[in-house]
Amino acid sequence: MNFPLSIFTLLFVVTTVFAQLGLEAASYFRKHLSSTSEVYLPSESNYTLETTQRWNAFSAPTYVISVKPTTDLDIQNIIEYAYHNNISFLGTGGGHGYSATLDTVRNGIEIDLGHFNTVSIDPNANTMTVGGSAHFANITGPLYDAGKEFQVGSCSCVGIVGATLGGGVGPYGGLHGLQIDALQSVRLVTGTGALINVSATSHPDLWWGIRGAGFNFGIVTSATYQVYDFTNNGQAMSADLRFRASQNASLYEFARSFTGKLPDAFSIDIAIAYEEVFGGTYFFANFIYVGPMEDGIALIQPLLDLGPFDRNITMIPWKDIETSSKFGVDALACIKGNFHSVWGLNLYQIDVPTLINAVNYMDTVYAQYPGFRQAFLAIDMYASRVTESVPDDATAYPYRNAIARFLLDVGFTNSSLATAASQVGRDVRSIFIPTSGAKTDNIEVYVNYGHGDEGQLGWYTERKLPRLNALKNKYDPSKLFSHYNALEATYNVPKY
Ligand SMILES: Cc1cc2nc3c(=O)[nH]c(=O)nc-3n(C[C@H](O)[C@H](O)[C@H](O)COP(=O)(O)OP(=O)(O)OC[C@H]3O[C@@H](n4cnc5c(N)ncnc54)[C@H](O)[C@@H]3O)c2cc1C
Ligand SMILES: *[C@@H]1O[C@H](CO)[C@@H](O)[C@H](O)[C@H]1NC(C)=O
Ligand SMILES: *[C@@H]1O[C@H](CO)[C@@H](O)[C@H](O)[C@H]1NC(C)=O
Ligand SMILES: *[C@@H]1O[C@H](CO)[C@@H](O)[C@H](O)[C@H]1NC(C)=O
Ligand SMILES: *[C@@H]1O[C@H](CO)[C@@H](O)[C@H](O)[C@H]1NC(C)=O
Ligand SMILES: *[C@@H]1O[C@H](CO)[C@@H](O)[C@H](O)[C@H]1NC(C)=O
Ligand SMILES: *[C@@H]1O[C@H](CO)[C@@H](O)[C@H](O)[C@H]1NC(C)=O
Ligand SMILES: *[C@@H]1O[C@H](CO)[C@@H](O)[C@H](O)[C@H]1NC(C)=O
Fold it and tell me: From the record, what ranges are coiled-coil (predicted)?
């Protein structure tokens, strides 16, 4: 053990009175953490307001205490305390992780990284350093003002580091690759309590592992990334289009036609959803083209010819892609505290008959369960040329060759629908699996899109596991970081 406070002999807490656990932890932390850190007990009225809330209230962790550290040493001390007292803990960045495995944190300690939210940009060096909890919303404006761009994701409230540690996909990934490909170094508190810099030259073994399996080894307190000069003067075409459900085959045929030839600057996002005012089941689709409007229009002309019933095609600064494209759905995607059963899968080909089956299935779900009418089923397709220009064995991330992903979010408000929500998710995934193009029998999924029941072979692959398991034993031998789609963990998912 390498803990800074290991000279203290801590008593094992044997009580099963969890409130007592929280009180004891609070009194310890108030004494031993830096004076600017904060502790909150769930029973306190300020708890909900002052601690980071989760996007998904379903399968959520439960805590006896939430701690908001302000220094790296605080984080070392919290991990040491949790370890010695055998209390599970979870670091919280943006709070958008939704895996069903998160509910394995019961009566745990939340390490709320909310104070690790700094952003600094060095335009001359083309670098950006962010704290472990900074959101995409916190970097887009400052980067834009500095004349720089970055491969953000699709939701402005997601934690940058939380997304990166699994890989980090988004519309500018066609131009710049995955977020892990922009990463230059991180500062990390490991599962042994050590504070280390991790980069190509410092702990290079772990450097490989954190890029794709990062949440398994520790808590990142800050991360430094490469950023890029503007493409197309920082402007992109964003085309929001709405279509009737009956047009589904043509829409997916359009996506399929780009297989193997999606321009780097072009990204496709097609979602099926339900809205009474649009006649029930319908499509909303977004196309980003980082180039002149007329070239972007030419790319989507086949879709315009189909006659979308609604359109909004504009040039926007890249910084607004998350917040103002997709008819402004970002504001909804940032709402916390609802129930979600989320499912995903990698696609290595676009099989139109499969997609038609999925649409027809969702159409019946919307009809049968009014409680699932906020559910949506999205396909995202980002060019993989730059992503694939990095060799597979350069990072732990195993799925550079996926050409698209589906993501199904079954949102619901009445918990009595939990079993049915899981059934919908499993059914949709079963529709996709036979034609996904995966070469193994594992449920291959981008770890950050995982439902939680895919297992380590599905998140990390057989190819990567030997090296990852060796890293786990070295940097987190006590398996403290085992609550989010983790290596070597056994989960009882699905429970519904
Ligand atoms: C609405 C929505 C849109 C999304 N869009 C995209 C997208 O476009 N592209 C994409 O790639 N992904 C996307 N995701 C998935 C997203 O990348 C993951 O959910 C990610 O894990 C969220 O990170 P977070 O910090 O917000 O969440 P949290 O729940 O806070 O964290 C998720 C996991 O990461 C760990 N973690 C977070 N911060 C740190 C840190 N600093 N150090 C160590 N571990 C940490 C947590 O402990 C937890 O295990 C989306 C998710 C949602 C809900
Ligand atoms: C939160 O509220 C409680 C009273 O409910 C108060 O004692 C405590 O100091 C507050 N915590 C912080 C960090 O402000
Ligand atoms: C630690 O906690 C786990 C889960 O609560 C329990 O199963 C285990 O026995 C505990 N170990 C010790 C040494 O108390
Ligand atoms: C970071 O972005 C979030 C929105 O996702 C916002 O609520 C918060 O105030 C921002 N933090 C800072 C320090 O700007
Ligand atoms: C990590 O690197 C920074 C700057 O590069 C340095 O100041 C710091 O001391 C290093 N920390 C550790 C734990 O090695
Ligand atoms: C999807 O397209 C197929 C093929 O054109 C069609 O048969 C089906 O009815 C459509 N689905 C819906 C929900 O409109
Ligand atoms: C059209 O899109 C732009 C940019 O995304 C947005 O600012 C505007 O509000 C949208 N207009 C409508 C009518 O939705
Ligand atoms: C939730 O669903 C149950 C079972 O269908 C129903 O009895 C209950 O009234 C619903 N609750 C709410 C708040 O709608």
Answer: none
Which ligand gives the minimal distance to the CA of 236? 7
Q: Whose CA is nearest to atom 10 of ligand 8?
A: 414
Q: How far is the CA of 319 from the centre of ligand 7 (A)?
A: 14
Closest Cα partner for 410 from 16, 58, 116? 58
**Confidence band (pLDDT; 50, 70, 90) for 18?**
confident
Does the pTM surpass 0.85? The reply is yes
The domain locations on the chain are 2-112, 119-230, 235-460
Note the pLDDT tens digit of each residue in 182-221: 999 999 999 999 999 999 999 999 999 999 999 999 999 9
Assess whether the C-beta atom of 201 lies below 6 angstroms from ligand 8. no
Residue whose CA lies nearest to ligand 5 atom number 6: 197
Q: Rounded to the nearest 10 degrees, what angle do helices 248-256 and 352-368 cross at?
A: 140
CA nearest ligand 1 atom 52, residue: 96
- Give Cα 359 distance to the centre of its chain: 24
Q: Separation of 276 CA from ligand 7 center, angstroms?
A: 21
Which ligand 2 atom is at minimum distance from the Cα of 44? 5
- Euclidean distance between CA atoms 486 and 443, whole angstroms: 15
Architecture of domain 235-460: 3-Layer(aba) Sandwich (3.40)
Structure tokens at 338: 């609802």
Asked if the domains at 119-230 and 235-460 fall in one CATH topology, the answer is no
Tens digit of pLDDT for each residue in 245-285?
A: 999 999 999 999 999 999 999 999 999 999 999 999 999 99
Evaluate if residue 427 carries a pLDDT over 80. yes
Ligand 6 centroid vs 297 CA: distance in angstroms?
Answer: 26
Please tell me the predicted confidence (pLDDT) of residue 3: 56
Which CATH number is associated with domain 119-230?
Answer: 3.30.465.10
Q: Bridge-partner residues for 135, per DSSP?
A: 159
**What fold characterizes domain 2-112?**
3.30.43
Cα(329) to centroid(ligand 7), Å: 11
CA angle 173, 463, 345 (to 5 degrees): 50
What are 345-368's pLDDT values in tens digits?
A: 999 999 999 999 999 999 999 999
Query: Following CA atoms 328, 329, 333, 335 in sequence, which dihedral angle do they give, to the nearest 10 degrees?
Result: 70
Q: How far is the CA of 50 from the centre of ligand 2 (A)?
A: 10
Give the Å distance between the CA of 85 and the centre of ligand 3.
Answer: 9
Ligand 5: which residues within 6 Å by Cβ?
A: 195-197
Taking the CA of 314 as reference, the closest ligand is 7
